[in-house]
Amino acid sequence: MTCGISLEACPSPNYHVSSLQLLERIVPEPIIAGRKSIKLDLQPGTYAWCACGRSRTQPFCDGSHAGTDFRPVPFTIQVQKIYSLCACKHTLTPPFCDHTHRTLPPV
Ligand code: FES
After folding, report:
1. Confidence (pLDDT) at 17
2. DSSP letter assigned to residue 72
3. What atom in ligand 1 is closest to the CA of residue 52?
4. Span from the CA of 30 to the centroid of ligand 1 (angstroms)
């Protein structure tokens, strides 16, 4: 639990957990499968985007998320064209790249 105040002002600094640390414990972190988008010429149809980063068939789910809290993100393509799909798994517009990979810390 967090006391909700800064570490400096916390009356229990030995047990203090920041809001970010608490969020990281609650929200699982995906594996970064790539640090740039994957561009694919997609035919109309329904696909399952890998959200966990564990799939060996990026950017699509291969079932490797089993045992994690992640689930694939289904999406439907209506028009054939080249799509830019997220590989870093941190996009805010899944399954499409929003260039969040440019803001991720280096390895
Ligand atoms: S393998 Fe990553 S969501 Fe299924």
Report:
1. 67
2. -
3. 2
4. 10
Q: Are the beta carbons of 58 and 69 closer than 8 angstroms?
A: no
Amino acid at 27: V
Q: What are phi and psi of 15, to 5 degrees?
A: -115, 5
What global pTM score does this model have? 0.77
pLDDT digits (tens, 9 = 90+) for 25-67: 677 899 999 999 999 999 999 999 999 999 999 999 999 999 9
| pLDDT tens digit sequence for 57-87 | 999 999 999 999 999 999 999 999 999 999 9
| Ligand 1: centre distance to CA 66 (Å) | 8
Residue 48 C-alpha to ligand 1 middle, in angstroms?
8
Amino acid at 98: D
pLDDT at 24 over 80: no
Task: Please report the beta strands in the chain, taking only residues with DSSP state E, as ranges in sequence order.
Answer: 38-42, 45-49, 73-77, 81-85
